[in-house]
Amino acid sequence: xxxxxxxxxxxxxxxxxxxxxxxxxxxxxxxxxxxxxxxxxxxxxxxxxxxxxxxxxxxxxxxxxxxxxxxxxxxxxxxxxxxxxxxxxxxxxxxxxxxxxxxxxxxxxx
Length: 110
What we know:
Elements (H helix, E strand, L loop, with lengths): L1 H59 L4 H15 L1 H7 L3 H16 L4
Protein name: Phage holin
């Protein structure tokens, strides 16, 4: 009986270690997906807030047109750089979002 135990023990330990490693990998992947989604949502909220605040500031300072968009983008880059990087938002996308916020606030047309 001891011979059978001695022969099976390495295989049992190997299978157990594979199961534990698989469980840890699954848990890590699940956590990464959940927290990744939460982080992305926070980045989107921060970006939208910065765009709106930047648009308000640009209008209060009397900017219009592309000067207002540039002012908004400057504000966004300063206030939420992590959100811009985390969302991988390009200049064209940010410019479109800035124009939309201006139109939302003041009905400006470009």
